[in-house]
Amino acid sequence: MYNVRMFRAVVSKPFNTSLWITPSRHFGINKGIKYHLLESSLASVGIFGGDDHCIASAVAQLGLPVHSHKILRRGIGEVVQYYFERNRNFVFDSFVLGNTSSAQLEHALNIHIDQLLVFHHLLGDALSIILHPREWPYTLHTMVAIVDDLCTIAAVKSTRSDWYLERSFMACLFTTTVLYMLTDTSPRAAETRLVSCKLQLCHFRIIDFS
Question: How far apart are CA 60 and CA 17, in angstroms?
């Protein structure tokens, strides 16, 4: 929910009314001011880096009142979370759920890697932001959603006894892949893809053994 006083201050001044469009299916927010502010802030990250300057630039580009940056109450943390959420939705939408299988998991992780390569040089900064204690609740929520999506794509059929085991393995697989990217200088993160593939083989061997 927007702060009521701030919301009134924003809408009381003229701005581009084309920003009001249909609600977002994925994020559950009004796909208007906040959505465009997040998108524009993300587009400015490559120029201004991972700090609040990219939000200020987005406000200026959209022609919004100066204090509109307060719509993003968590500042750059909200932009980084949006980045991971957007990547997550892009990956999930790339698959037809009826065709899910364990073989699809490698493809899904490769798409995640491709998306992270866009801001590879800022990945360390992004992780330091979302791992700040004040961001943990939001980061955990996003992480759980990513892990659930990967389990769905991999057609994991968990029982009550191994539900947590499967998701723990998948969380380790995803986080290890992302962390390995921090120091990967190979073309198109080739080494990260190789490590991710080997981890997947270990994962399915352990599951089969158990």
Answer: 15
Last residue within a domain, chosen from 42, 71, 100: 71
On whether both 66 and 152 belong to a single domain, the answer is no
> Among all chains, which residue has been given the structure tokens 């924003």?
10
Residue with tokens 């009314």: 17
Residue 100 CB: number of other CB atoms within 10 A?
A: 17
Query: How many domains is the chain built from?
Result: 2
The reply to whether 169 and 109 lie within a common domain is yes
Distance, in Å, from the CA atom of 113 to the CA atom of 91, rounded to the nearest integer, reads: 10
In which domain, by residue range, is 184 found?
A: 76-209
Write out pLDDT tens, residues 60-97: 999 999 888 899 999 999 999 999 999 999 999 888 66
Instruction: Kindly state whether residues 49 and 83 are assigned to the same domain.
Output: no
207 φψ region: left (φ > 0), alpha (ψ -120 to 50), beta (else): alpha
Does residue 83 contact residue 42 with C-beta atoms inside 8 Å?
Answer: yes
Domain boundary among 20, 47, 71: 71
Tens digit of each residue's pLDDT (9 = 90 or more) over 111-158? 999 999 999 999 999 999 999 999 999 999 999 999 999 988 888 877
